[in-house]
Amino acid sequence: MIKDILHGFSMALADSVPGVSGGTVAFIMGFYDRFIGSINALTFGNKDAKIKALKYLMKLGVGWGIGMILAVLILSALFESHIYNVSSLFMGFILGAIPIIVMEEKGNLKNNPASLIFFGIGLAIVVGIGFLGNIGDSASFSLGEFTLSQSIRLFFLGMIAISAMFLPGISGSTFLLIFGAYIPIITGIREVLGLDFSYIPSLFVFGVGVLIGAQSVVKVIEYCLRNYRSRTIFFVLGMMFGSIYPIILGPTTLENPVPALSLGTFSPIFFIGGVLLVLGMQWIKLKEDTKAE
């Protein structure tokens, strides 16, 4: 039980910040297939499968909730005040995670060179979204006032964000960052925790989008991993490489925009910290695997 709670806690810390996906953490720590399978079973399985999945997801959810609350209270301010260090950390995490995933899936990847095209597709999608977000209206907005146009935008952003969070590639928070919604969502949750309930209608609409997106995407991911694993992993790796681009652009989408990450503002120390963080997660996974044998 403690292990599942810690898994959920780790996913929440990843999901709460742009650049890192909770799915990536699940993949590195070896419980991704169980996570996706449980969500799929909860929606489409029989009674016994639903009960088993619910028990597992509740334990995961406890850890996720604790991690998300801590992240909202701490990371929102950190993200605004130390954007270049945080972005460098995320970049190190992603680039450190890629070779680990390749090693974990080498049996599925090495004999399928034709699937490389899916790497290019994943990379192009993320870079394209980052580019469109950069040239479009990606300025942050406030959730304190509920409007129809903003609620429609939040609904679709919720669907996109949860879809990305389930994939071990680009994070949902990165998509929110691209379209200027990351700071508003984090701020809205923080204000509700501070008993300012004017943000609840907007957050509710966002949550509905999350739920509908989750129902739609999990079945697709589970099917692709089961029937087209090699192509799916190449696609995920492409998305991970592509996510470096929106991380670089991240500072330009803040409420008070600053220049994009550059060689002058890049932090090698935090980059190495990101690499060490992902290596630490892999070490924990290997320790768990050794105990299970």
Topology readout:
Blueprint: H1 2-15, H2 22-28, H3 32-44, H4 47-81, H5 83-104, H6 106-109, H7 116-135, H8 148-166, H9 172-178, H10 182-193, H11 200-227, H12 229-242, H13 244-249, H14 268-292
Helix pairs in contact: 1-2, 1-4, 3-4, 3-11, 4-10, 5-14, 7-12, 8-9, 8-11, 11-12
Written account of the structure:
This protein has 293 residues and is an all-alpha fold. The chain contains 14 helices and no strands. The longest helix has 35 residues. It is globular. The mean pLDDT is 81.
Form type: globular
Strand content: under 5%
Gyration radius, rounded: 18 Å
Number of continuous helical runs: 14
What are the segments in which pLDDT stays under 50 over at least 5 consecutive residues?
A: none
Q: Give average pLDDT, whole number.
A: 81
> Terminal Cα separation, in Å?
18 Å
User: How much helix, percentage-wise, in residues?
Assistant: over 70%
The structure class reads mainly alpha
The major pleated sheet works out as: none
**What's the count of strands?**
0
SSE string, helices as H and strands as E: HHHHHHHHHHHHHH
Q: What does this entry show, briefly?
A:
The protein is mainly α. It has 14 helices and no strands.
Keywords for this structure?
single chain, mainly alpha
